[in-house]
Amino acid sequence: MTTSQTVPALGDDPFGSEILTDPYEFHARLREAAPVVHLPRYDLLAMGRYAEVRATLSDWETFVSSRGVGLSDFGREKPWRPPSLLLEADPPDHTVVRTAMNGVISPRNVRKLRAEFAAAADELADTLVARGRFDAVTDLAEIFPVRVFGDAVGLPAQGRENLLPYGALAFNAFGPRNQLLTDALAKAAPVQEWILAHCQRDELTPDGLGAEVWAAADRGEITHEQAPLLVRSLLTAGLDTTVYGLGNTLYALARHPEQWAALHADPKLAKFAFDEALRWEAPIQTFFRTAAADAVVAGIPIPKDTKVVLFLGSANRDSRHWGDDAETFDVRRSAGGHVAFGMGIHQCVGQPIARLEAEVVLGAFASRAARLELDGEPVPKLNNTLKGWASIPVRVTAA
Amino acid sequence: MKSTHEESEIDLLVADRRVAADGVVALTLRHPAGEELPAWEPGAHVDLILTEDLTRQYSLCGDPADRSSWQIAVLQESDGRGGSAYVHDKLNPGTTVRVRGPRNHFPLEPADRYLFIAGGIGITPLLPMLEAATAAGAEWQLVYGGRTAASMAFVADLRAAHGDDRVVLRPQDEHGLLDLEALLGAPAGDTLVYCCGPGPLLDAVEERCSSWPSGALHTERFTPKEQGEPVLSGAFEVELAQSGLTLTVPPDRSILEVVEDAGVQVLSSCQEGTCGTCETAVLGGQVDHRDSLLTDEEKAANDTMFVCVSRAACPKLVLDL
């Protein structure tokens, strides 16, 4: 690649366990080095500053998604699965499908979910706060979305244990073929089979979001061949991200007792706490784009066909945008504009559902627990794309 | 960003102005000192910076080889308060206008065969493409629709230059809507489709082309959805029922910005009316909806709004904040 001479290089492996465990020191060096940095290990260009990451996400014409949003270039390599019609597509194909999906996840449809989500949140909070000590990941973050989102999509209760391993596989597959991906692929076959089967109309309840996708196909908004792939998008993108997001929020709050105190005093802050936690510790740390034409970013030429990796978690802590306290977790901050959900035409279509889940479940715990504290060392969970925790032991004090 | 080259910003002289069709004026712009203008390719557009808060994009529709002048054509929009009214009322020969660009989001890619589809003033970016396709020896056809024959700009020039075989004119009052099924029903592997026109035409063409090979269709559309001028050109008030504050929103700021500056937290994300995060319940007043989310029915209900882009259609809104 010709640009490697003109941009600074960083020799780190951003998909090595060290940086996947704690990426922030690397992010700071990445932002400091230049707006665009060469990563010779993968012969990639990388961006870690807010302005360039946001602009690149928004410029779908130059930086396309149809060649894959991971390290692999679909122009050169066969994808490991049929590409996503949403995530791994460009207009005009993407526009048709996204429009149909916006209809499925419309503000009106999401509003209908609130009562059921809130009832499940209250029930879970009653149980866990009464218990006093629990694991914020395995007892809460991994339980709540699988239950309420699984119900919203219309999945049977049986077999939902396949959802998180499938998500872990999909998100590992955006990275290099390292041990994480090899391990995930080794366990993949039965999981993939279950997911594929449950994208079919017969397996879904008639009143859920999955059935809505099939109804959109009946109306001709999408084809019947596209419908199962879109249900697959719901199942892939809708679970792990929310699980990690909730876990990261509880971690942030447990590490910052004064922030939990503010939330307990005013549980309406729950939605802001979640948003700030997404900014502070983005569940999806990286996404890739491919330059469809020669481009220039911040004066640096990016040749056609170059893969570019965008560090979302780094952009969300760039002091150029967020100010000197960018590293500080503060639920009263205005975190609006963070790129944890992406930006532009590919911005997370399920965003309102994730926000609703987080708002009701955090609100339910905040109103019941005066204190939330760590009750042991949290254990990180490594993934090539996702940043989060396998375990966060906590204890709560009932109000 | 979109900076494939350095953008210039220059004051240009309106050297000529002629009526190109009912409600359409064509302007010729030149450098006041006769200097050469920046190079451009078919499909490019420029920003006309009309006033401090009125910037509009227009496609260049002249000859790219002519570095001494640029041509644009502007349709007078019916509501009569926006950029087109300014161009029609104020940009007479001898006046100057600040121009930024050019920029190209709609480049013509090489192909053996093209189908060009124009709706109304959407003909403008296609004009230089026709010349380029001819020069490259490609086969092409233009299907050009408009409300009436008299409303369609450059018709005589097109027929004279390219003949009736290649230029198919379809005024709506004589032929009805364009027969897209006949044009696009069967995907043609070697053909690139270039379409520019009103939103509903683009939507319909995109839908028909969903069975075409990926990359066959090229459209000129600005995202997010282009919005017209706000209902109110001046300031308005918002009363925040929960916080007990009444704030003034000036024309150049969003409700979201003003409310956040007053210390009231509001959740937001895309800040361009597409993601839905800043949805806020409306307790009183009429909303000027400017988002890309609500259906017409939901807009009419007037009980919710997206405060990052939507504004007031009355002197005072009451919000549940």
Automatic annotation (TrEMBL), chain A:
InterPro entries reported in the protein's UniProt record: Cyt_P450, Cyt_P450_B, Cyt_P450_CS, Cyt_P450_sf
UniProt keywords, alphabetically: Heme, Iron, Metal-binding, Monooxygenase, Oxidoreductase
Pfam families: p450
Gene3D superfamilies: Cytochrome P450
Entry keyword Metal-binding: yes
Top-level taxon: Bacteria
Family classification: Belongs to the cytochrome P450 family.
PANTHER family with a match to the protein in the record: CYTOCHROME P450 YJIB-RELATED, P450, PUTATIVE (EUROFUNG)-RELATED
Protein name from the UniProt record: Cytochrome P450
Source organism: Pseudonocardia xinjiangensis
From TrEMBL, chain B:
UniProt key word Zinc: no
PANTHER family (alphabetical): CARNITINE MONOOXYGENASE REDUCTASE SUBUNIT, NADH OXIDOREDUCTASE HCR
Species assigned in the record: Pseudonocardia xinjiangensis
Domain 2Fe-2S ferredoxin-type, residue spans: 236-321
CDD domains for the chain: fer2, PDR_like
Record key words, sorted: 2Fe-2S, Flavoprotein, Iron, Iron-sulfur, Metal-binding, Oxidoreductase
Superkingdom of the organism of origin: Bacteria
Cofactor: FAD
Name of this chain's protein: Oxidoreductase
